[in-house]
Specification:
With about 250 residues, this protein is of the alpha/beta class. Helices cover about 20% and strands about 20% of the residues. It is built from 6 helices and 11 strands. The strands form 2 sheets. The protein has a 7-stranded mixed β-sheet with strand order 5-6-7-8-9-10-11. Strand 2, helix 1 and strand 3 form a beta-alpha-beta unit. The longest helix has 11 residues. The two termini are about 15 Å apart.
Amino acid sequence: MDGLNILTDPIWSYRCSPLSFIGPRRRRPPGLRFEDLPPIDVVLISHNHYDHLDLPTLRSLAARDGPRILTGLGNREFLESRGIGKSQDLDWWEDADLGPGVRLRAVPAQHFSGRGLRDRDGSLWMGFVITGGAGSVYFAGDTGFGPHFQEIRNRCGPARLALLPIGAFQPEWFMSRVHLSPEEAIEAHRLLGAGTSMAIHFGTFQLADDGEDLPAERIRSALHVHSNPAPRFWVPGFGEGRDIPPA
């Protein structure tokens, strides 16, 4: 974006777990090999869960590219204690400059944090809005449905692109507090006033009861019931790249 290569919650590890030999494993390889990544300038970490803050990947990126890492309050100290520097803590609604003409704002999410038994909600979770000359991108991280979507639009304006999670939503009576269902993601797209939305956070790790394929199937079905034209909400193939149309 605007000359910067930005990664969100990167994970190239085989498992999202504190241990390399047990825990949720990949159902498919990363869409791009690590060695094929271009030089990375900025890494955004939405929260500290193992499938979002992956220490092996961050160590590899730090050693290869030394990117700037932006994340929620409380995570900088954790990263530095693991030998990963150049990180910056942000609070909700705090801004940071990423480069000439590119600005980031940390925005609320409805989620939680924790990597063990004693650190529940000990660090902040968030999404990000990145604004540059070509418009803005909203990365939701992990979030349930709530009034923050409307507030983000009110404060940041409509996004040219919204990256919205659709997986790990079943059982809905339990997961709805912290994860969007596919139908809620479509409603979030509407509230955000996004020109285009893209589905993320599904089909890679088995984290809930919905499995690999149901999130994409549900959102495609939900889009069919909307009046024409249907919302521009993409479910791209894994590893697929697309050009974002003007908002």
